Every structure is written in structure tokens, then in C-alpha cells.
Amino acid sequence: MEQIKQLLSTNSNQRESSRDIEKIIIDILLKHVNDLVFIMKVESGPRFRYVFANETGLGHAGMTSHCLGKTFQEVLPGDRAFSLQHEYERAVQTGRIHIFADEVSLDNEITVFGETILTPVATENGDIGYVVGVTRDITEQYRERKRLIESEQRYRSIIDHSLDAVFSIDMEGKILEINPAAQQFTGFTENQLRMTTVYSLIYKKDIAAFEKLIVETKAGNSLESIDFRFAHRKGHHLRVQVKTVPIVVFSEIKGMYVFMRDISAQAKSAETIKYMAFHDHLTGVLNRRALLDDLDHLIKSNRKTGKPFSLLSIDLDRFKFFNDSLGHLVGDQILKQVAQRLCEIQKADCQVYRQGGDEFIILLTRADRREAARFAQKVLAGFAHSFYFSSQEYYITPSIGISVFPNDGKDAESLIKNADEALYRVKEKGKAHFQFYRSDMNTMLVNVVSLEAHLRKALDRNEMVLHFQPQVHLSTKEISSFEALLRWNSTELGLIPPSEFIPLAEDTGLIIPIGNWVIENACRQIKAWMEKANRPIRIAVNISPKQFLQPNLVGFIRGAIEKYRIPACLLEIEITEGAMQDTAETIPILKKLKEIGVTISVDDFGTGYSSLNYLKQFPIDVLKIDQSFVRDVLLNEKDSAITAAIINLGRSLGLEVIAEGVEEAQQAEFLLKADCEKAQGFFFARPLPAKDAEKQFVRKIQSSAINM
What we know:
8-stranded mixed beta barrel; 6-stranded mixed β-sheet; 45% helix
């Protein structure tokens, strides 16, 4: 540029002698310089006239060599000419180099950005005679700078508008930058925070863990933790979730971002939920879940040392009488007062739990038999004083059973069970005292005589209930029949398995009234479901061999069918092979049942003394394959062969075949391929109470009937 300036400022004689140099310069400017070069002659006005332009400049401006000697106004559009005229005038007026940037839209609708350097050149008399303009295309630089600015603004938008507090810190933890949320989060101003380190904001007891987090982040790891408490300017502490992210510049960690989120409300909610999970909602003492957790922890810690601890199972005598006679409101208040009194008696190594109902447990974490006996006496003495509710005075006594680790049990279940066993013995012997567990107590909760006494009252107490298991059509998955299964839920003994009370009912003759109850309730359920589903639904009931031979069985069944006005075929009577052995008595009963129209099935076919002659003589409608064959049908070739043979036999005789005990999808697939019509078992559904079975299956039957 200095050479051009000298070239234009020489006198005419010197120019003649330097023509060769000028040609070289012009050739360079024309062909080898990528920048846009323009030399403008300054005339009065001022006006600027093109005297030189290199090829790059002519092409960029959309000009030709014919434009040389013309002014801006003669060559360029008005707005472009006006803009350049203004910039060139500033260069002439100042007499100094003038730099400006502009953008130009080319004919192909592409916008380019240029940076122009205007150099004024003075003549011999000192006036500005020429202006040399060199324009460089800075489009890429401009766009890159714009991208950087936009990226910075995006980053700032994320940081500044984040609801989390964001701290930018150096490698020593000094706070370099914060976002607005950090000021609100901490209660400090930006200047105050920049004068300190992030460590000063962390609760003292959490600083060691926080420093470990920072060290890991310095190694290039992004981490997260919710184990920190944050010190607010006003002095209180917040529970915070912390995230750390390393700041990496050219592969080098220069600092890190620390994000903090206030989770105090969530932590408080979590603590509330935890409290509710481990505390009894009525009394506020710990519950059974807490007891099991504490017992497991105590057993693990004491297993090696063998140090004893004691478990006291406490039950309130005659509480059911109070609850029934005075109402549940009074009963709840009594339970609250009992819990409070037990908590008042407890000592340092003692914890009170409520199992449920009127049952409480006290865990003495450092007590042997002698200390447990002393504490039990203290509990009994504490109940010597009456309870008050609504100005009424009540006396309540506790019965206490005690088990001691490790002699009376080495796991939580055994310790609780054995304490309950001891408690039961206390109840048997007059209540209101305590007793330790003894190994000879480890028998059934009740003996056969006691169980029989409860069984005789079961029907009167409405303790018997029917559960229903659907029988599924394997090909269509439809349900049109159920099996009724008897359950006994004793108010005093709890749920008694059928395997325990059915044999007892058979031995005592109680199976007759119980069986009649089952038949009548099954008929009533058929009526109810038939009306709701608007389709026939068959229910099968088991008839024991003793009940089957009762003279009035047929009459009772007829009466139940007529009472509820149901089609007789919807009641299915299941008999076992054992009931069919005496053909002289069995055949007349079965024929009478068939005259009524009842469906007859043979239950557990193949497990007893089977005879194909039975199938020929008896009016049977359904064969039920015993679950013992179905269970191993995929593993045992004999079982699969027997099962397939029973299915083929039943189908060939025109009988409906139902497989019991299906628990796996592969078993169902085998039965379907073997052409078995129906199946039942846990794979499809467990036996359900009537309401649940109705909700889950009968309503579906109803909707399918409507859509037909």
C-alpha cells in the first residue's frame, strides 16, 4: 500500500521512469491479489472517480473495465453509492486511514460481509488527490464471530434463566461467576459471593464429602449427590442436590460448574413418608415393618457375640369386648392411651411397636430372662391404674408372652412366633400375667378338639365363604363356568386351610351341613351372575363321598334349584372316583340327579381306582384331569401320554374335558394341542371371592353378551 501511495504521489517525470514498476504492481493487483482494490480520484465536490480496479474488485462490484473513469453515482445503485460516498468523504476530511465494515447483497441473493481500508493519498500541493480502497471478504470471520456471540448468548440464557443456582468456580473453589438464581438461593449479593469460596456455603459436617466431590470433578468426572446441606445467609440450612461439571478448555480443565437445587421440601416429604411407613398411624408408635427391620439388624449384630435380647408380645385382655360394646371410637382411644402408657414405661434399651389390633410388642435390646421378667412385672404394674375416656373409667389388663434370643429363636419370625406361643399359653391359663416360651409349646396353635369347636360355630358366625376359579376355554379364552372352592376365615383363629378343616368335617359329620351350605350359595351365585351377565354361567361344587350317600341329597339339590329358579344344568356336581366304587348306591343317585338336569363331573380322574366301566355305566358329562398329571406334563412322558389319553377318551365319549392345576403357559399350549376343551389353574387366575370374580370375569362375560 505504501508503494502505491508513493507511485501516485510522484511527479510526471518520475512516473515515466517508473512505468515498468507500475506495470508489475498493476499485474499483481489485477491477477494475484484476492482483496478488492479500488483507486478513486478525488475531484471537487467532492466526487470520486474510478481510475483503477483490479479484476477481483470489478467482479465483486458487478463492474467492467468500461466503468473506469466514472463516479459512484454513475456506476452503482443509489443506496450503495450514497453509503460509499459518505465513507470516502470521511477519509478525505480526516486525511487519515479510515476503516469500515459493510454488507453487500450480490446478484445471486448471497450476502457477503467486507472490511474496507481507505487510504487517502496527497498530491504535491498537499491536497488529497486519490483514495485507495482495499476491501477484504470477512464473511466467514463475521459468521464465526456471530456464531460465537450466539453461542455465548445461548449459554447465558441457560445459566441466567436456570431455576437452579449455578456457580462457576476455579480449581481452588473460588467463585468466579454466578447466575441470578444463586443470589436468591444463597441470600448473598454477587459481589459478596465473588469474595468467597464455594466451600464456605456448605454445612461444616458435609464439607469433607463435598471436597471429595470436587476432587473427583477436577479429574474430569461429572458427579451428582443429594447428601449436602447448604448454609443460607440468614443462618438456616437447606437440603440441596449438587451436580458438578468440569469446565474443559482446549482439553484442559480450567474450573468447574456447581449446580445446586433446593430439595428441602422433597426431603421433608421423604422423611414424612418414611415416618408413615415405619409408624402406626393410630398410636404413633413403631409398626410391624419397623419391628422386622430392627430385629434383623439386632440379630445380625448379636449373632457373633451371642448377647441376649428379649421380645415381649403383649395382648390386651377382653379388648374385643370393649371394642364391640363401646364402639370403635372408644377402642381407638384406649389403644392410644395404652401405647402412651407403654412408652412411659420403656427405658433406654427398649422400643415399643404395635403389631396390629390390640397387639403390641416391646423389644428389650439388652435384656436376658431375669431383666425381661423384671420389665414384664413393671408393665403389669403400669396397667394397675385405670384408663379414662369421656369421664368414664376403664380397667384393662395385658397378657405377656416372652421369647429370648438366641435360645428361643435365631431369626425374627421364630422369635415373634414363639413369643406369641407363650402369649397364647397365658391366655389359656387365665390372662393378666406373663410367661416365657418353652420348647414344648411349639405345637399347633389349637388342637383338634378346639378346632372342631370353632368349626361347629363357623356357619352360624358366617365365617365360611366361597371363592371361585374360572374354567377357561383354551381355544377361545372365553369363560362360561367356575369351580366353587370353600374357604374358612375364623374370627378367632384366622384363615384355616381346607386341608385341615375338610378332613375334620368329614370325620365329625359336619361336612353334611357345610356341603348343603355350599350347594345353596352356589345356586344363589348362579342366579345373581346369570342376571348380571345375561348369559348362562355354570358353577361346579365338590360333593364329598359322605354327603353323596345322604338320602336327602337329591331333594335338597332340587329344592335349591327351584328356590333360585335357575336352569339345573348350570349346577355342576363334582364327585370323586372313590364315591363311584359302590355302583349299587351310586348309579340310582346319579340317575336321579340327571333327571333333574344337573351336570355331573368326575373330579381328579385317573388318581383313584379308575374303571372304564364307570364311564359306560354312569351318566357323566365332564371329566376333570387331576393336577398331578398336568404338573409334570412337560417333563414326564408318561404323564403327557396319560393326559393325552384321558383327553382323547373323554372327547370320544362326548364328554367335556377340563384340566386342573395349569400354572404355566407351556402347559396350556400342550393341552390346547391335545384338544383339551377347558383348563383352570393359577396361570389363568387364583380362586377369588365372589365380588372380585364378578369384577374381573363376569362383567367381561356381560360385555361380550351385549356385543353379540
